[in-house]
Design a protein that fits this description.
230 residues, alpha+beta, Jelly Rolls, 35% strand
Length: 230
Amino acid sequence: MKRSELNRILDNSLAFFDAMHFLLPPFARFSVDDWRRNKDHLQEIIDLQLGWDVTTFGMGDFNKVGLLLFTLRNGKLNSSVYPKPYAEKIMIVQENQVTPCHFHWNKREDIINRGGGNLIIELYHADPAKNGLCGGSFPISVNGMTRTLNTGDRIVLTPGDSVALEPIHAHRFYGEPGKGTILVGEVSSVNDDTTDNCFIDKTARFDDIEEDESPKYLLANEIQKFVCGR
């Protein structure tokens, strides 16, 4: 991904959050200079990778296969410094913008449609011990009500709807065509994007950035490089 595209995506995302009246913490708008001025107070943000996360999952076409996330809070497993057992993210999903099929070995999460269009989630029965799918039916909780689905079934989350996902629930999601962009919330146990994502088709989680212009904002996984020089 080019830095110029990333800058544009983040500008557009900030405008969408404003339009949806969802307020982000002040560091969402930090410039590189702002980060450097605050470098003595960043350890928690760096260690827990709070902030912006934009990915095309290695595909190079954000509008087709991609996701924008902002990690608002997080903890760290087996840590006395960051003992929170929970995490929260806010995401933006466009119409027909796919997040590839994946599951988590450890994380349990609620996915919530916070407003906008409709979120389509395809669900598959996963076997985390075998790092793959196993087929068959499985229970799942939608809006607090348990139902049984078969692998490959879809659910549609309209604004206000939510689904509780466990490690057995591999999922692929995208915005329903013609319904608009969606503000998507995630409330979960501790999040670790470096070790707790199993993509069924071996998709990459993060993209390399081509520096064709200066960054307006920094992604969570690059604050340390730009601010601390490592």
